[in-house]
Each structure stands twice: as C-alpha cells, then as structure tokens.
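Tutorial handout. Part one gives the primary structure; part two gives the three-dimensional structure as tokens.
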Amino acid sequence: MSELVEPTVDPADWTCPAPLRDQPLVVMGHGGGGALSAELMEQVFAPAYGNATLAALADSAVLELGGARLAFSTDAYVVRPLFFPGGSLGDLAVNGTVNDLAMSGARPAFLSAAFVLEEGVRLSVVEGIARAMGAAAEAAGVVVATGDTKVVESGHGDGVYVTTSGVGLVPDGVDIRPQRARPGDAVIVSGPIGLHGVAVMSVREGLEFGVEIASDTAPLADLVAAMLAVTPDIHVLRDPTRGGLAASLNEIARASGTGVRLRERAIPVPDAVANACGFLGLDPLYVANEGRLVAFVPPSAAEEVLAAMRAHPQGVGATVIGECVAEHPGMVVVATGLGGTRVVDLPLGEQLPRIC
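Part two.
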C-alpha cells in the first residue's frame, strides 16, 4: 500500500475565474472602489494620461517641487443624504482629502473646494455644508485657500456635490506606498470598522437597528504623525473608504506582490455593525470607513507603533489583525473563527453606493 501523501493547499486555487466584463456604459459599480473602478482606471484613465506618478495609484501623489516633497490629492464627494449621524458632506470633503494626504505621511496644509449646486437647493443647506467644512478644516489644521462654484439646472444634479483637492509636505526619510509591503509586516487597523457605511445607509433607507450608528469620519494626520514619531519606516498606510478594508488590502497585496493573512476574530467589528450587516447580508470587510487607517509596519516596530496609536484619540481601538506573508502573493485570506480559511477578493463594485 502506497504511503498517503498530504495534499498541498494553495489558496490561489480556491478562486474561480470571472468572465471578462464587456460593459459599454458607465454603471454605479465603476465608482465603488472595487474591480470595476480598477478597470476604469487601467483601461480608460491611465492610458489617456500615462505617467509614472499616476501609475503608482496611491491615495495621494508625492511630487518633487523646488526641493520639497509635496503630497497632492483630489477627491469628489457625492454622498446621499447630505447630513447623517456623526457627520455630513462637509466633514467628508475635508477629512477625506486630509486623510488621503496623510496616507503618504504628509502633514496636510491647504485645500481647495469646488461646489456643484443644483438649482432649487436651499441656501441654508449649502450654508450648513460650508460651515461643517470650515469646522472640519479648523479641527484638521488646514486652510481652505481657494475654490469654485457652479450651478446646474434643476433635475441635472442631486443637491450638492463637492470636490476638494489638497497639498501637504512629506517629511524627509518617509517613503510610504503600497509597493513597500514586505512579508513579516504587521497589519494594524486603527479602530472599529464599518461605522460610516452603515450610518449612511441607515438614514438613507430609513432603517433602525436598535441603536444609532454614527459615522467615524475624522482627520487622521495627527495619528499618522504620532506613528511616524516612533519610526519613519512605516511601509504602507491606507484609509479604507470605498470598498472597505477588503479593497484596500487587495490593492496593497497586488501592488507589492505579497500576500495578506488576517485573523477573523482579531478584526474589530462593532456589534451594531455586525448585526446590521448580518440582517442585510453584507460583509463588514467591504463596508466603507471615513476615519480609520490600515498600516503595514515592520515587525521590529509593531508593538511601539501600536502603543502610540492607542495613546491617540483616533487610535484607541488600534488592533493587529494579521500579517503580510510570502505565500499566495497578491491575495488576501482570512483565518476564520471555525478554523477554516477564506479568500477575501476585491469587490466587483460597491455594496453601499453613494457613501462618500
């Protein structure tokens, strides 16, 4: 009788190939931060603009200018409703761009703001959004230095859209980008996930889950500064907004050619978010956040960085949720609480449209 050989298990064999998407029209999924968004960038925008800076596909571009290293980012905000528990379109427009700059290690300094207003929207609504932006900018330590306003005919918009751009300075010795993830890196998330997406959805759809769920929208530049004070050698930072934690980790794994292994029981999902997602059939890993970051930190510095995060108000709930590995390059897997393993793939579109 021949000796029994234990089969080799490769998570890369667990995924079924998806058919190519031949989509001649823009669909909502193109703005969801998942696979369709990536295809839009790779097949339409990157070939049109073709340059190495854009090809890095980071949250913000790092540019050399006059001997300084500048981080530069832009983002559009189309959330509905305009006001929701814990925040508003105005908060998102500031915090989202501030956080994109911070994910390059930059200290954000100046923002621009462009408003697209629909004819017939109440001026009190516009004023409320503008005041929220001003308060958020003051809290983040940035100045809204320039802007623009356009008005479209009634029926050709959805109340208010805002686009913000921002610049900040990247300190010497800091090189944070998705390509720098290395096997052995600790994967740290700064706090509970899924709050923003569920908060927006609960108001928009009129759902009640027995407790109010508030958005986590917040500026993260001070938290990043505290982390860099421990070590400038943080490899990767991302704020998991559209597509949630799953999309961000997949983008990092693919950009670096490494794998990511998570521990399901270590991922901080609030009970209210878990219950809401269970009721609606959603996976919290794919739900958007607006005040959280995920960091890839060298193992030698992981404990000190984690302690610094927990000492900061925006990182009190910081947790090590996994590690970067050499196995299954370009893939993210989760060790489940039942002892199994599942693949966490890049989402096709967005579970919850219009959340930022």
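Part three, for discussion. The chain is about 30% helix and 25% strand. The domain at 55-169 is CATH 3.30.1330.10 (60s Ribosomal Protein L30; Chain: A;).
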